Amino acid sequence: MRWVASVLFALATILLAATVAPSAYAESSAAPQVRISSVADISADLALLGCGAEPRYDSVSRLFTKAGAQAGDVTDFSHRQVRNLVVRKAGTTPETIVVGAHYDKTELGCGAIDNWTGIVALAHLYSTLREVAVAKSLLFVAFDDEEMGLLGSHAMARSIPKQERAQYCAMINLDSFGLATPQVLDNVSSKRLRNLAGELALAMDVPFNHARVEVASADSASFLRRGIPAITLHGLSADWYSILHTDQDQPSMVNATSVYLGYRLALAILARVDSMPCDAFR
Length: 282
Hints:
single chain; 282 residues; alpha/beta; eight-stranded mixed beta sheet; 8 strands; globular
């Protein structure tokens, strides 16, 4: 892909402290050094997808264990037929940010683009922030049954008591990278978070765009319906419909740089939301 070389060149100019450090730790000399994952790190975990060799939930669990998740931080959120995996990173306040990606796939193909790429980006976000002090509690959620009608995210969003929804500051959803540079799925994303993504991409010199696919939905929609600001990031090209939900959705189709850029942009968004008042993006 022609954009890869130019993007990698542009990334060499990015100042990490300006784009990834939440205010809770940016000025603390005692804070642990933030380790930003590399394209090679992302690529190594993309290769762990076994295309049906083990249950998808187990693959996700193993990936988060590899990222450093301890048993006490992991919750199996089961509701009826859905089984979400939730990894919690405690903050200093009861305010919460949800970061999610669905792990299920359709019967056709391997589900490499849709959505092992999102799961890998999610695990690397956790790995990067696992030992970093943050203001808001972070819930890293691998959603089940997105392909069956957003069932996993619906179950989680419904479980949030109405009186506690104001403490949920944002939901960041990662769905299907690997074909192009980062984009926002506008029709299932809050306006202020859409604007924030564009602002940060510009500051990071990362190519960025918007897309609107009216026939498509995503797990962010489950949180939007309950008044929680949400955004879906993806990295799909114009020919996505010939790959997703078909037998063409294979590991060989994934460009690791696309996944890496999605991870970096999501990290910057997460850092900014953590540093802002909880209602800043409502």
